[in-house]
Write a structure and sequence with these properties.
By secondary structure, the chain is of the alpha+beta class. The chain has one helix at 7-34; strands spanning 44-50, 56-64, 71-79, 85-92, 99-101, 106-109, 112-115, 121-122. The mean pLDDT is 85. It has one helix and eight strands. It has two domains: 1-34, no CATH class; 42-125, no CATH class. The strands form two sheets. Strands 1-2-3-4-8 form a five-stranded mixed sheet, with no helix packed on it. A three-stranded antiparallel sheet has the order 5-6-7, with no helix packed on it.
């Protein structure tokens, strides 16, 4: 027969489960707001470049972080066929806005070469 748990054990397991859930939620929120590229500053558009076959467009934005931080540079790629966009470049303290396409899928932004379909550059992950 299965052994019954005492009320103390039930309470302890309930508390541990609740603590685990709270820790997981806090960890997810820290990741989402600190490391995800989905919530980057919009910034002001400074450059727009189309791929050689016009399938993709790279838009570079410069965002001002305020008086105590430097500018950031955000690169967004837009698929011109389905109009989907995603952030693929995020750099801190960069004034340059050099963009050159190597081919229809590969772009170099300030010396960082990226495949627009699968690569991302995020200075926070270096």
């Amino acid at each position: 027969m299965a052994e019954r748990k005492s009320p103390k054990e039930k309470f302890l397991f309930g508390c541990l489960g609740l603590i685990l859930i709270v820790v997981l939620i806090v960890a997810y929120l820290i990741y989402y707001f600190s490391f995800s590229m989905n919530h980057l500053s919009e910034g002001e558009l400074i450059k727009k470049e189309n791929s050689p076959n016009n399938t993709y467009t790279i838009k570079l934005y410069r965002a001002n972080g305020g008086a105590t931080t430097s500018y950031t540079l955000r690169g967004e790629v837009i698929n011109n066929k389905n109009k989907e966009s995603k952030n693929i470049y995020w750099a801190y303290d960069e004034e340059k806005d050099t963009v050159s396409w190597k081919n229809n899928r590969t772009v170099t932004i300030n010396g960082h070469t990226l495949d627009v379909e699968k690569d991302k550059y995020d200075f926070r992950r270096e």
